[in-house]
Amino acid sequence: MPTTAPPPTLIGRYELLTRLATGGMAELFLARERGLAGLERLVVIKRILPHLADQASFVEMFLREARIVARLSHPNVVQIYELGHEDQTYHIAMEYIHGSTVRELLLMSQASKVKVPFDVIASIGVQSLRGLHAAHELRDLDGQPLGLVHRDISPHNLMCTSDGHVKLLDFGVAKTTTASVEATYSGNLKGKFAYLSPEQCLHEELDRRSDVFSMGIVLWEMCAMRRLFKRRTELDMMQAIIGGDAPRPSRFRSDVPAALEEVVMRALAVRREDRYASAEVMRRALEDAARADGLQVGERPVAAYLKEVAGEKLEERRATVASAFERVLTSDERRRLLHMTGSSSRSQSMLGQEEDDDLPTVVERPGAPGTTPGATRGQTGDVRASGSMDSLPGVDVGGEFPAARSMVRPRSGEAPAHQEESGAAGGQVRRRRRLGVALVVVAVMVVASALVWVSQREETIAVSGEPLAIGWAPTVDPSVLQTELAPLHRELERATGRPVPLVITRDYADLAERLTRGEIAAAVLPPMLYVETQRREPEIELLALKEFDGGTSSDALLLVRMNAQITRVEDLEGRTFCLVDRFSTSGNFLPRQYLREQGYEPDRFIGQIHWSGDHFQGMRDLIEGKCDAAATYSGAFLSGAEYEIPTGQIRTLAITGHIPQDTVTAGAHISDDDAELLRRSLLDFDPRQALGVSRLGDNQRITGFSPASDEAFESLREVIEAERLDEEGSAGDAGL
Asked: Percent of the chain having pLDDT more than 90?
C-alpha cells in the first residue's frame, strides 16, 4: 500500500520526489521546483555524491558539465536551470524529459521485432546533429570559439521526447580544445568504448570530427539493428575501430536506402580528413539523402514510432510522476520511472519487467533433478564445518555448505574455497610464495598482532540503531570467512556507528534472495549475479567494487591439462567440463557465452558437466581427470600454487572474458542515507591505516574498495540479454 509522504527532502527550492539513479560520480533525483504564486515544474536534480564532494577532480568535472550546458540554449540539448551548492555538495537542476533514449528505443524495437523505420533514423540523426553542432559552436564571453568536443556520443545520451524532439544529454566528459592539447587528452579514455573514434583510441588530439564518427556509429546501429564495434574486450573494440571494421549496414538489412547508407559510411571513415568536416555539414548531407530516398524528416515520425513501441510505458510513467506529487512511490512505481539517463546513471531498460525471470543455465545432466551444484562434489547430506556455529558470533550460516577445509594444507580431493571472481586486474599481478618457516612465522605474527589489536579496540566501539547486515556467499569455510572478515566488519561498525553483522548464506542464489527480501542491508555479489539481481530488482544500488590485491577486474579462463591433446576449443566437443556454480560469472556464464561466440550451442557442445563448487576445486578436479576442461578466473589460477594446487600441470586454452571484481550492493529497502553511509565507509576503508596490514586475509586479500559505475557491467548485461534472445530464438526454431 502506498504510504503518506514524509516531510519532503529539500535541496534549495527543489523538493526531492524520488531517486532515479546513482552512478559513479553523481546521483539523479526527480524533483519539484516550487516557484512564486504557486507555480511549479518537474526537474531532474543531478547531485555529486557526498563522498566525492571534497575531491577536486570530480568536482571540477561536475562543474565543467554545468558551465558548458548552461551556456547552451538549443531545443536539441537538455536544458540546465541552475547550478547550486547545498549541504557541502553541488547539484545541477535540469529539465525533466518525458521520453526514451535511443538505446531504449533500439531495445524495444528488438523486443517487439519491429525495425526502426528509416525516416525515424534520419529524423533522430538530423536533430542530434543540430544539437551537436550547437555544442561545437559554443563560444566564450568574448565571442571566441571554445572548440567543445562531447566525447561521449552514444544511444544512451540521445533522448527522444514523446512529442518527437531529440535532446543531447550528458556533457560530463566534454572538453574544450582552446586551452591546450591537454584539454582533450589527459591520458585517460573518456566515453563508452564501443562508440569511441579512432583518434580517441589512439590518444590523439580531438576535434569535432571525433563526435561525427561516434554519431556515425549510432546511425549505423539503428540501420542494421545490431551493435557495430561491440567485442568481448575493450582492446578488441579499439582494434576494430582503428582498423575500420565497419561493413555496410545493408549487409544486415537489405532495404537500407542507398543515400542514407553513404552518409553513414562517410561518417565512419577512419581518417578524420575523409569524414564530414562538421556536424552541420553531416546534417545537411543527411537531409539531402533523406530527400533523395523519399524519407520524411521531422518530429512527427519520431513521436509516432515512440508511441507505437513505448506508448503504454510512457503513459505509465506519466501517471507515476503525477502520483509522486501526492505520496511515497511504491517500489514498482519507482521502477517505472527508471530509464537510461546517460553515463552517470544505472542504465535501465523499460523492458525490465517483461524479461524472463530465469537466467539461462548450463545443462545439468550429471546431477539428479533438484540437485544443487554443490551437492555433486562428493559430499552428501547436511555437511557442516567442524566446530560449533554458535562459537562464531555475528555469523549466520544460511544452510548447507561444503565440508571444512584446512587453510594451510588442503586434504586430498578438497580445496580451500576461494572468493568468487577474485583476482588481480587483468591477471597481471603475480604473488610470491612464502619462502621458509621464518617468513611463515613472521606472517602469522603480523596477522595475530593485528587481530589482537582489533580485539583490544572492540570494547571502545559503541554502536546503536538498525543493523546494516552484509551478506557473503560461503566460498570459504565459514570459520575462515569469520576470521578474515571480522576486522572489516568491526571497522565498518566504527565508521557507521551501527551494528554491521556478517551473514554467510547457503549459496549465491540464497545471497541474492536475502538481499531482495530485505533480510540483509547489502551483499557482496559477483558480476553476473549483480546484473541478474538488478534486472529483477532495479532499485538495488551499486556501492563499491572489492579490491583483490589492488585489482578491480580479472580474466575468465578455460583451462585444460598440460599433457592433454587439446589445442583448440573444438577439441572439447562432447567432453566433460568442470564448472563452479550456476551463478558464477567466470565459472559458468562466460565459458558458455564464449562457446556461443565460437559458433557452438553449449548444451549440445558440452558432453557432461561436473559441478566443482568452487574455483580451486575445479582446478583440482581437472588435474585428477574428473573433467577435460575447467572454468575459472585469473586470480584463482595465479594463486593456486599457494594452496598446493600443482598449476604447472594445467594451462590456459582460452580467455573467455574480462570482468569487474565482486560488487558490494545495497538492497532496495534501505534508506538512501544508509546506502550512502555504507558506501562512504567502504571507500574509506584502508587495511594499512585501520589494521596495520597491507591486505585483509590470505584468502580474501582485500586491499580496499573502489568507486563503482554501473556502466562497467553494460557489456556483461548486453551479453546476457543476447544469450537470452538467442535461446528464445533457438526454442522458437525448435517449435517450427
From this structure: 36
- 333-377 pLDDT, tens digit per residue, is 665 665 433 333 333 332 233 333 332 222 233 333 333 333 333
Is the CB of residue 45 less than 8 Å from the CB of residue 9?
A: no
Q: Would you state the torsion angle of the CA atoms of residues 565, 567, 570, 573, taken in this order, to the nearest 10 degrees?
A: 30
The answer to whether the beta carbons of residues 637 and 530 sit under 8 Å apart is no
Residues 654-702 pLDDT 10s: 998 877 888 999 999 999 999 999 999 999 999 988 888 888 887 678 9
Q: Sheet containing 166-168: give its strands across.
A: 99-101, 158-161, 166-168
Q: State the Cα–Cα distance between residues 21 and 341, nearest whole angstrom.
A: 8
Work out the angle at residue 291's Cα, subtended by the Cα atoms of residues 289 and 294, and round it to the nearest 5 degrees: 110
Which distant-in-sequence residues (6+ apart) come within 8 Å of 316 by Cβ?
Answer: 336
Q: Distance between CA atoms of 630 and 165, rounded to whole angstroms?
A: 51
Closest-CA residue to 15 (of 41, 37, 38, 36):
41
| Torsion 130-135-140-143 (CA) sign | negative
Name the nearest CA neighbour of 190 among 343, 76, 330: 343
CA 89, chain centre distance (Å):
25
The C-alpha cell that represents 450 in the structure block? 593485528
Cα–Cα distance for residue pair 145/324, rounded to 1 Å: 42
Per DSSP, the residues of 154-213 read SGGGEEEETTS-EEE---TT-B-SSS-GGGT-SSS--S-GGG--HHHHTT----HHHHHH
Identical topology for domains 392-405+416-551+663-717 and 553-660: yes
CATH class of 99-302: mainly alpha
Residue 26: its H or E element: strand 26-34
May I ask the CATH class of domain 392-405+416-551+663-717?
alpha beta
What superfamily would CATH give domain 9-97+311-354?
A: Phosphorylase Kinase; domain 1 (3.30.200.20)
Residue 699 CA to residue 431 CA, distance in Å, equals: 13
Tell me, yes or no, if 477 is annotated catalytic. Answer: no
Q: Which CATH superfamily is domain 553-660 in?
A: Periplasmic binding protein-like II (3.40.190.10)
Bridge-based pairing of strands 522-525 and 702-706 is unpaired
Interstrand relation of 9-11 and 14-22 (parallel, antiparallel or unpaired): antiparallel
The C-alpha atoms of residue 68 and residue 89 are separated, in whole angstroms, by: 19
- Residues facing 43 on adjacent strands: 31, 95
Distance between CA atoms of residues 180 and 185, nearest Å: 9
Residue boundaries of the structural domains of the chain: 9-97+311-354, 99-302, 392-405+416-551+663-717, 553-660
Under DSSP, is residue 308 helix (H, G, I), strand (E, B) or coil? Answer: helix
Catalytic option among 152, 170, 614, 628: 152
* Count of positions (residues) in the chain: 736
User: Can you tell me which residue has the cell 513521436?
Assistant: 303
Please provide residue 720's backbone torsions phi and psi, each rounded to the nearest 5 degrees.
-60, -45
* Cell reading at 573: 566437443
* Helical pair 478-496 and 436-458, crossing angle rounded to 10 deg: 50
* Helix, strand, or coil (residue 543): strand
> Is the whole-model pTM more than 0.70?
no
Q: Which of 675, 569, 710, 541 is nearest to 631 (CA)?
A: 569
CB 365 within 8 A of CB 604: no
Residue 149 near residue 137, CB atoms below 8 Å? no
Cα–Cα distance for residue pair 99/310, rounded to 1 Å: 9
Kind and range of the H or E run holding 730: helix 714-734
**Nearest-10 crossing angle of helices 118-136, 279-293:** 160
